[in-house]
Amino acid sequence: MAESGKIDPMHQFVIQPMFGTGDLSVGGYNIAFTNSSLWMVVTAVVLWIFVAGGMKRSLVPGRWQMSVEFFTGFINKLLTDNVGDNGKKYMPYVFSLFMFILIGNILGMLPLGLLGVHPFTFTSHFTVTGALAILSFLIVLVVGFWKHGFHFFSLFVPHGTPLPMIPVIFPIELVSFMVRPFSLGLRLFVAMTAGHVLLKVLAGFVINSTNAGAGYGALVGIPSFTLMIGINALELLVACIQAYVFALLTSVYINDAENLH
Amino acid sequence: MPQIAQLAATYSSQIFWLLLTFGLVFFVIGLGMVPKIQSTVDLRNAKIADDLARAKAAFARADEIEEDCRKRDTENRASAQSIVADARAKAAAESEKQVAAADAKIAVQIASAEEAIAASSAKALTEIEAVAAEAAQDMVARISGGEVSRDAATQAVKVALAHG
C-alpha cells in the first residue's frame, strides 16, 4: 500500500487475530483473540484502574475520587432525570455501558501509532455496537414484560389515540420500537467509523502531497493538517457525545419499560 | 469495508470478547464498585445536609439564648435600679433621724450650757458687788478718812452697777 503511494483509510478497521489464536474456537464458533479483543481488554483494565483509584471513599474527596464521583454522579443524574427514582437500580449497567464506550472511543483516538502501537476502535464495528444495542434492547423488553406483562403492548398505543386510529398507529409504533436497537447500534458505529475515515483520508492527503513535492505539500498538506487538528478535537467531542447518546437513549428506553404510561 | 467484509469470519469472536470484557466490567465495576462510590457520595450529601441543619438549629438556639440574655439583663438592671433607689431612700430617712436626734441632744446641751452661763454670770455679778463694795469702802477710807458701813457701800455699788 505505502509502496504504491495509496493509503487505504479502511485498513484501520481490519480485524487481525493476535498471538496465533486465529483458530481458537468454542462449539464451532471462532473466538480468536484479535486486536479488537485486545482493545476491549485494555478498555476494561483502564476503566478498572480509573474506578479503583476513586475507591478511597474518603469524606473529603481527592482529585481522582472527585473525577470518578463526577462520572457516577453524571450517570446517576441521567437516570434520575429520565427514569426517576426507579432508575437508580440501572446505574451499574448504564455506568458500565457509558464508561466502556467512552473509554473505548477515546483509546481508539490516542496517537499511540507514534509509539508503534496500533490503536483499534472497537466501537467502529457494528458487531460490537449492535451487540451492546441488543443488550440494552433486551433489558428493556425483559423489564417491560416482567413489570407489565402483556400490558406492555400499550406502549405502542400513545396516550389519547382515538379508537379508529389504533390499527394504524399500532404497527407504526411497533416498527419504530423494533428499529431502536438498529438505530442505537448504527449511530455509534457510523459516527466512529466516519470520523476515523475522515482523519485517515486527510492524513493520506498530507503524506501523498508531500511525497509529490514541497510545493504540493505546502499547498495541500498544511491546510489538511490544520483541518486534521480541528477534526481531532471534534472527534474527541464526538467520542464523548456518542457515549452519552448511547447511555441517554438506553435510559430513555428503560423509562418506557419502567414507567409505562 | 472490513466491518462488512470480515463480518462472517469475526462476528463470533467480537461478540464473545465483548460479552466477556463488558460482562467483567459490569459485574466487577458496575455491580462491585459503583454502588460503593455512590453510597460514599450519598453519605457525604446526607452529612452535609445534616450539618447544615444542625448549624441552622444552633443558630436559632444562639439567637434564643441571646434574646434570653438580653431580657435577663434588662430585668437585672431594673431590679438593681430599684434596689439603689430603696437604699437611697432608706439612707436619707436614717440620716434625717440621726440629724434630728443630734439636734435634740445639742439643744439640751445648749440649754444647760446657757443655764450654767447664767448661773455663773449671776455668781460673778454678786462677787463683783462684794469686791466693788470692799473697794468702795477702801476708797472712801483713804480719801476721806471716814468709815463707811458695809451695807451702805454695797447699796452704792448696786446703784452704780444698775446705772452702768
Write the layout of secondary structure elements.
The complex is a heterodimer of chains A (261) and B (164).
Chain A: E1 25-26, E2 29-30, H1 35-53, H2 63-82, H3 91-109, H4 126-148, H5 166-211, H6 214-258
Antiparallel strand pairs in A: 1-2
Chain B: H1 2-5, H2 7-144, H3 150-163
Helix pairs in contact in B: 2-3
What can you tell me about this protein's structure?
The complex is a heterodimer of chains A (261) and B (164). Chain A is mostly helical. Chain A has one domain (11-21, 29-54, 62-258). Helix content of chain A is 66%, strand content 2%. Chain A is built from six helices and two strands; from the N terminus they run E-E-H-H-H-H-H-H. Chain A has helices at 35-53, 63-82, 91-109, 126-148, 166-211, 214-258; strands spanning 25-26, 29-30. In chain A, strands 1-2 form a two-stranded antiparallel ribbon. The longest helix of chain A has 46 residues, at 166-211. Chain A starts with 24 loop residues before the first strand and ends with a helix. In chain A, 32% of the residues are buried. The mean pLDDT of chain A is 86. By secondary structure, chain B is mostly helical. Chain B has one domain. Chain B has three helices and no strands. The longest helix of chain B has 138 residues, at 7-144. The radius of gyration of chain B is 63 Å and the shape is rod-shaped. The model of chain B has no long low-confidence stretch (mean pLDDT 89). The A-B interface holds A 10-11, 13-15, 17, 25-26, 29-34, 36-37, 40-41, 43-44, 47-48, 51-52, 54-55, 57-59, 61, 68-69, 72-73, 76, 91-93, 95-96, 99-100, 122, 124-128, 131-132, 135, 189, 193 and B 1-3, 6-7, 9-22, 24-26, 28-31, 33-38, 40-41, 43-44, 47.
